[in-house]
Amino acid sequence: MKTADHYIALAAAMIFVALQHREKPWLARTLIAGASGGIGYSLAPEVAQLAHWMGERMAMVMVTAFGYAALDVMLALLSDRDSIKELAASWLRRGGK
């Protein structure tokens, strides 16, 4: 059973995510924060097991607060096809090194 502290930490991390997207409409911010909270809540036990120095609550906050940012960066990189082509061509010219 989770404690109130657990849910307070989750809510705080979700508020942090929502504040990072102030330029977006209210509904988009709410959905982003909700998705981040769901991912953080569900992945926290596994992340805490992988990172032995981190407890489950800290893992939940980290995944919630920074997981969406990592996904956002990856999607931005993948959507920039010209940069990906240039990077792949450069990598192939160097022989894959």
Characteristic terms for this protein:
single chain, 97 residues, mainly alpha, 81% helix, 0% strand
Question: What kind of sheet is the major sheet?
Answer: none
Helix content: over 70%
Name the average pLDDT.
88
Discrete helix count:
4
Topology as a string of helices (H) and strands (E): HHHH
Question: Which class do the helix and strand fractions yield?
Answer: mainly alpha
β-strand percent reads: under 5%
Q: Point out poorly predicted stretches.
A: none
Q: Kindly state the number of beta strands.
A: 0
What distance separates the N and C termini?
Answer: 49 Å
What global shape is seen? flat
**Mind telling me the C-alpha Rg?**
17 Å
Molecular structure report:
The structure is a single chain. With 97 residues, this protein is mainly α. It is built from four helices and no strands. The chain has helices at residues 4-20, 26-50, 56-79, 81-93. The protein is flat and about 55 Å long. The termini are far apart. The model has no long low-confidence stretch (mean pLDDT 88).
Strand-helix topology:
Blueprint: H1 4-20, H2 26-50, H3 56-79, H4 81-93
Helix pairs in contact: 1-2, 1-3, 2-3
Task: Characterize this entry briefly.
The chain has four helices and no strands. The protein is an all-alpha fold and 97 residues long.
